[in-house]
Amino acid sequence: MTFPPGTVLLSAAQSNGLETYLSARFRIPRAALDTFLTDGDFAAGLTPGLRVVTKQDDVGGGDTWHPETAVRVSGISEEAPGPNGTYRRLLVDLDREDTVTVFLHASKP
Predict the structure, then answer these.
(1) Who contacts 54 (Cβ-Cβ below 8 Å, separation ≥6)?
(2) pTM for the whole thing?
C-alpha cells in the first residue's frame, strides 16, 4: 500500500500469532483519497455509511482509536483476500473538509 504525500500516521499496531493483525489510523488530504484507494488495489469501492471498523479492531489498545466518533463515514470490507492474502477493512472519517482520517484493520491467516 502506498501512502500519498501529506499522510500523517496517527497510530499503528501489529500482532503476530496464528493470524497476523494490523490496525492503523492515518490522515490524508481529501484530494488524495481516490488515488489512495486505486493504488491500494481494494476489491470494492467505498460504501457511504458503512461502519466496518470499530473500537474492538484496535490491535494496540490504548486511547487513540475512536472510529465511533466519526459522523460522516464510508467504508470498504473486502470479502476476498487482497494483495498478499490479506483481508482489509477500511473506515473513512469524512467529517473534515480538507482531510480524511482512515481507520484500517487488516488480517492475514
Answers:
(1) 67, 68
(2) 0.91
